[in-house]
Amino acid sequence: MTRQVALVTGSSRGIGLAAAVALAREGFAIALNGPLEDDELARAVATVQAEGVPAMACAFDVTDLTSHEAKLKHIEETLGPLTTLVNNAGVGVLQRGDVLEVSEESYDRCMAVNTKALFFLSQAFAKHLVARDRDAALFHAIVNVTSSNAVAVAVPRAEYCASKAAAAMISKTFAVRLGEENIAVYDVQPGLIATEMTAPVIDMYDQRAKDGLTLFPRVGQPEDMGGIIAALASGKLPYTTGQAISADAGMLVPRF
Questions:
Q1: Residue 157 falls within a domain, yes or no?
Q2: 3-17: per-residue pLDDT in tens?
Q3: Which is catalytic among the residues 160, 186, 205, 239?
């Protein structure tokens, strides 16, 4: 059986792990990524393997651009030809606060992980696919996980917003370039999702969702995002590329 093979960055937990599980249920072989070869990543791999598909740990810091090519080759040597990249790895701000007080350290950290790493891992992946023959029967795609803050301002997280807005434009740029190569590119923009990153504030947002901030009166779960990512990566939206998917329960629908 020829399988689709996906690398999912930041997949030790949260949205990344949910995406890996959802892709496994579609029959993908999965390379799960975290910055360290630790127990959390090992548990995530075991969770995906329990779905009955090949899975491996692929630990590396996505901001180490020199590691990208070697890691992609290692995945292919272990699981087979890559078809899919899910750029999910991301960080939040070091401290919420006034945009006038944002530190260079926090700004650079957001840009390094959320923007620069996404750009150059997408570049390495795309060059890898373009340079070799590919099975035309398999769907090839890059799915980037950005944020509703690519569009909507959150003043206490200005540097995060800037990094995600840049990542959203990167998604469009790669979609335009890779269309002729039959490689689809999507931008999934999660809204209020209950993850470890949002844990300190999710109760407040849960109440705001119930009060009407979102059209569905609840916060989202990682599994909601995983299902969207898997559908896109499986080619279940044929003849589409370059789309930004507002996975936010209608939060950003204009209303009055």
A1: yes
A2: 999 999 999 999 999
A3: 160
